[in-house]
Amino acid sequence: MTTAYISAGSNLGDRKENLALAVKHLAEENSVIRISSYFETEPVGYLDQPWFLNIAIGLETSLSPLELLHQCQGIEASGGRVRSFPNAPRALDLDILFFDALVMNKPELVIPHPRMQERKFVLGPLAEIAPDFVHPGLKKTIRSLFEDCPDTSVIRLIK
């Protein structure tokens, strides 16, 4: 079994329900071991859209990285994801952040996620469930990446 971390976000429809369905579907083929609190986050890139709700999910999986990617893409599609343009509003977005300490660079999948260290909306939830996990390429903990993140967008913990 491999420990993987997923970033999940939604800014269309019932955001909490969209994220809950993503967790439910991920649990069909994996063991979900941790789920962060909800974080409401300001859009990054394309700003003229609703704010996101984001979580981080830790899971144990026997799937390969590409099998997990295909599962995530299937969950996004079943949740109504349409890829219209980069950073467009979406009902569901699932990104593989880590797959144990694997470093992988293929056209269809890069692990660790290549821009995660620049995004508070990814690092905030992940720091809650895996603060001491060390990024295999940057050799820094998630907590330190979050503390040093240059992103100035707003991120709020939802209680």
Structural descriptors:
alpha+beta, Alpha-Beta Plaits, 6-stranded antiparallel beta sheet, 8 strands, about 30% strand
How would you briefly describe this protein structure?
This protein is α+β, with helices and mostly antiparallel strands. Helices cover 26% and strands 28% of the residues. The mean pLDDT is 94.
Fold and architecture overview:
By secondary structure, the protein is an alpha+beta fold. It has one domain: 7,8-Dihydro-6-hydroxymethylpterin-pyrophosphokinase HPPK (Alpha-Beta Plaits, 2-Layer Sandwich), CATH 3.30.70.560. Helices cover 26% and strands 28% of the residues. The chain contains 4 helices and 8 strands, in the order βαβββαβββααβ. It has helices at 15-26, 65-78, 120-129, 142-147, and strands at residues 2-10, 31-35, 38-41, 52-61, 93-99, 104-106, 109-111, 155-158. The strands form 2 sheets. Strands 1, 2, 3, 4, 5 and 8 form a 6-stranded antiparallel sheet that branches. A two-stranded antiparallel ribbon has the order 6-7. Strand 6 and strand 7 (109-111) form a beta hairpin. The longest helix has 14 residues, at 65-78. It starts with a strand and ends with a strand.
Text of the CATH class: Alpha Beta
Helix content: 25-40%
| Overall shape | globular
The ordered H/E elements are: EHEEEHEEEHHE
Task: Please tell me the overall pLDDT.
Answer: 94
Rg estimate, integer Å: 14 Å
In total, the number of strands is 8
Q: What is the number of helices?
A: 4
CATH superfamily: 7,8-Dihydro-6-hydroxymethylpterin-pyrophosphokinase HPPK
End-to-end Cα distance: 32 Å
Structural class: alpha+beta
CATH architecture: 2-Layer Sandwich
